[in-house]
Design goal:
This protein is of the alpha/beta class and 286 residues long. It is built from ten helices and twelve strands. The strands form three sheets. Strands 1-6-5-2-4 form a five-stranded parallel beta sheet. A five-stranded parallel beta sheet has the order 8-12-11-9-10. Strands 3-7 form a two-stranded antiparallel ribbon. α4 links the parallel β5 and β6.
Amino acid sequence: MLINAKDAIRAIQDNHGLAMDATFVLPTSDRDAKAEFIESRITGAVFFDINAVADHILALPHTMPDAEIFTQHMQALGLNADQMVVLYDQSGMLSSARAWWMLRYFGHYNVAILDGGLAAWIDVGGMTESGDETLAQKGTFQAKNPNPKAITSLTEMSALVALPQSDRPKQIVDARSAGRFSGTAPEPRPGLASGHMPGALNCPVSELLDADTGLVKSTDQIKACFIDAGVDLDKPIVTSCGSGVTACGLAFGLALIGKTDVAIYDGSWSEWGAPDADRNLCPIVT
């Protein structure tokens, strides 16, 4: 699931793996993820556009697309069936885990995240290029039937939150920053309420990364992050965030420590905190 830069070079250059840049930045950022990709990327990499690979019928930012739409996007990127995928990002918030989750959700398990991203690749002599990407011929990837239990709906979340804390079958773990979780920092998307779901726990996804190197922390450190946040690692979890991206970062971190009974609330705060949400069904606390 996590691959170091030297092994990533071998996977891509020697074994015909496909590198995908899945950098995503918040709407309030002055960064342009695609422009940064064009400026510098792993040689031969393609851009996994998290904003584009989504169900655009719904008003939410990054709702999971259906199998047909996902297949079209992956084939357009040149992905072949069973081909090794090496994901990376320069987001500082493990946005590549969203692509990791989506690929696995649709049955493509030959996928890993490059530890340390582009910087780690460059540090070990990995080749880079710039300019517009040149896509390979259409790939042979075919999405498989997804696991419906891997994604939690608004209806299911409302039912979960309505239960007393002691009766809830799953814990809710929010990946947003402490300020957004507590309601002391504004949401990056206009109109969204501040705060969090009653009974939710807060484990900011940034806590899973070393602030100096950008490398993913050790499994012991990751486990400590969740325990310090009040998470019971023996009980099932549903993760949430702002729009379904960094919730996948928490799921990735949990997978690294061997915990797989984890679902994603795909609508996340963009749905729960929406200005037109029914507060009887979507209560908020600060």
